[in-house]
């Protein structure tokens, strides 16, 4: 007998689990398939988790979710060579209960989130790779797995199989990924004694620090580096556009080493012990990179649909939101007794249009092409900012007016006034 | 210089002995490829340049990121699948 479910969810990351959880809560019969040993064992993220989407599903998640620290302080560093200019924002009113962002370790968080979904009634099968979609008359009716007699059937299949989404590509729902549409992120988890870590970063209790680093550290490549504090470890890594890495021709782990050895970073992680090295692709296609996300009997959520807002370091919250919206689409169609065809499932797109997900991605739709074509933002300006601060802050007997004049002259040597004006306009337009 | 093996040594894997999940389709194409970018950009160093112009592939340390197949765009010479369920990298922290 064919086993048939209301819905099959492929993948147990935040997107898939949000979808499965929402469906199960509404009383639907859901099976979720995960290729890892446990949910999260294949998943990598920076990782800062924004809580708003999770909170909609599990309002009291703070009680028992494996959260590392709440991000009380955010720093942005603009690096040039061995110097940096930075900003710091600390919200002292924040606490564990009111914070909206937390550092997490995905292998632990995903497992917890999945446990919540299973408690809600989701049937989770791990160690099972979905190898293909089963179609009938061009309509997805189920999935083929690598288990013996592993075919499963459902009214609708939700693909939450991550950035590479082999299934969507195999089924012809989307084309191959291009090197300028993804960034390669490499990361290490470096363990440091909790007391040392708290002293170094100036935090107490569950406070955490997130540092975002841009500038010449990426050698002109479109990318950023980061350092996030966990309970007794830091996540340190960087992500650069694959197309740029290809041009640079340097192994990604060597970039990671240069980051770890940067004079601003080295003292923060010294004495630490690396206990894991991870790599992951990050969708960077933005609004224009979003593939077809629904069709006859299928929908795509999260990374698999390129739902990442890299400018704001948001990804897993977009995955959860889109997982939820896909699930709500299924619930609504089911309620009115509709078919899960392309026409009905277009409701998913409508829901996305009304959510922050597509609104934000549309807002930044031109951002990437500006940064890819105008390298001044990644090299010239970090240099200008750093050298200007250096000379303005240096006390050497030169009067301030002369210093200002020299600084201004130096800036114009690197970029003309018209150039700066054009860049500013370009940047402004790219975020309209 | 840092060796990638030192980094991979910290990771947890369950290797599917004798069943690599990534394969080079046609070794001849790799010999003719001028940049062999896979040997540079694979974050786990799975691809290595041989003494002759061949490329060798050992997937044991693979981090399953997908970089190799995205950058081998012009030749499309990599057969990329996920490991069988339960095998491959098992992130402890992620």
Automatic annotation (TrEMBL), chain A:
Domain FixC-like C-terminal span(s) in chain numbering: 368-432
GO molecular function terms noted in the UniProt entry: oxidoreductase activity
Listed InterPro entries: FAD/NAD-bd_sf, FixC-like, FixC-like_C
Sorted UniProt keywords: FAD, Flavoprotein, Oxidoreductase
Cofactors named for this entry: FAD
Pfam name, any one: ETF-QO_FixC_C
Claim: Aminoacyl-tRNA synthetase is one of the keywords in the record: no
Source species, domain of life: Bacteria
Membership in a protein family: Belongs to the ETF-QO/FixC family.
PANTHER family reported for this sequence: ELECTRON TRANSFER FLAVOPROTEIN-QUINONE OXIDOREDUCTASE YDIS-RELATED
Protein name per the record: Nitrogen fixation protein FixC
Native organism: Methylacidiphilum caldifontis
UniProtKB/TrEMBL annotation, chain B:
PROSITE patterns per record: 4FE4S_FER_2
Keyword Amino-acid biosynthesis: no
Domain 4Fe-4S ferredoxin-type: 20-52
An example molecular function term from Gene Ontology annotations: iron ion binding
Record key words, sorted: Electron transport, Iron, Iron-sulfur, Metal-binding, Nitrogen fixation, Transport
Signal peptide stretch: none
Domain of life the protein comes from: Bacteria
Pfam families assigned: Fer4_ETF_QO (PF05187)
Keyword Cytoplasm attributed: no
Membership in a protein family: To ferredoxins from P.putida and C.tartarivorum, ferredoxin I from A.vinelandii, ferredoxin II from D.desulfuricans.
Annotated function: Could be a 3Fe-4S cluster-containing protein.
Protein name: Ferredoxin-like protein
Biological classification of the source: Bacteria, Pseudomonadati, Verrucomicrobiota, Methylacidiphilae, Methylacidiphilales
């Amino acid at each position: 007998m064919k086993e048939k479910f209301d819905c099959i969810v492929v993948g147990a990351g935040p997107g898939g689990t949000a979808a499965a959880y929402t469906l199960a809560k509404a009383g639907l019969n859901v099976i979720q398939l995960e290729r890892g040993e446990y949910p999260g064992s294949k998943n990598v993220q920076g990782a800062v988790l924004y809580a708003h989407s999770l909170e909609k599903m599990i309002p009291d998640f703070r009680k028992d979710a494996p959260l590392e620290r709440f991000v009380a302080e955010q720093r942005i560093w603009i690096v040039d060579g061995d110097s940096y200019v930075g900003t710091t924002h600390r919200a002292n009113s924040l606490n564990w209960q009111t914070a909206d962002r937390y550092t997490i370790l995905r292998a632990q968080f995903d497992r917890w989130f999945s446990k919540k979904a299973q408690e809600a009634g989701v049937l989770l099968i791990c160690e099972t790779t979905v190898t293909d979609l089963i179609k009938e008359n061009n309509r997805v009716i189920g999935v083929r797995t690598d288990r013996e007699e592993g075919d499963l059937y459902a009214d609708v299949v939700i693909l939450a199989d991550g950035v590479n989404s082999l299934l969507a590509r195999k089924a012809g729902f989307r084309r191959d990924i291009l090197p300028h549409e993804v960034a390669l992120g490499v990361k290490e988890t470096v363990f440091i004694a909790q007391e040392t870590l708290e002293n170094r970063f100036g935090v107490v209790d569950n406070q955490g620090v997130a540092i975002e680093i841009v500038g010449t550290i990426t050698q002109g490549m479109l990318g950023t580096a980061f350092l996030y504090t966990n309970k007794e470890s830091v996540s340190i890594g960087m992500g650069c556009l694959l197309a740029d890495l290809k041009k640079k021709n340097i192994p990604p782990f060597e970039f990671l080493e240069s980051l770890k050895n940067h004079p601003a970073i080295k003292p923060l992680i010294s004495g630490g012990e690396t206990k894991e090295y991870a790599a992951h692709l990050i969708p960077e296609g933005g609004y224009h990179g979003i593939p077809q996300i629904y069709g006859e009997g299928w929908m795509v959520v999260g990374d698999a649909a390129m739902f990442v807002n890299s400018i704001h370091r948001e990804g897993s919250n977009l995955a959860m939101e889109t997982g939820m919206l896909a699930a709500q689409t299924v619930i609504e169609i089911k309620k009115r007794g509709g078919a899960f065809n392309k026409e009905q499932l277009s409701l998913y797109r409508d829901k996305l249009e009304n959510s922050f997900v597509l609104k934000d991605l549309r807002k930044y739709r031109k951002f990437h092409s500006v940064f890819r074509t105008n390298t001044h933002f990644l090299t010239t300006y970090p240099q200008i900012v750093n050298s200007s601060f250096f000379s303005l802050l240096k006390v050497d007997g030169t009067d301030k007016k002369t210093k200002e004049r020299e600084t201004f002259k130096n800036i114009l040597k690197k970029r003309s006034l018209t150039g700066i004006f054009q860049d500013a306009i370009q940047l402004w337009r790219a975020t309209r | 210089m840092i060796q990638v093996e030192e980094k991979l040594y910290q990771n947890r894997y369950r290797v599917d002995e004798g069943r690599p999940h990534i394969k080079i389709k046609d070794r001849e194409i790799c010999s003719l490829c001028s940049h062999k970018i896979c040997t540079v950009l694979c974050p786990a160093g799975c691809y290595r340049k041989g003494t002759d112009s061949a490329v060798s592939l050992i997937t044991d340390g693979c981090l399953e990121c997908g970089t190799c197949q995205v950058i081998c765009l012009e030749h499309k010479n990599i057969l990329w699948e996920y490991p069988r369920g339960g095998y491959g990298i098992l992130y402890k922290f992620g």
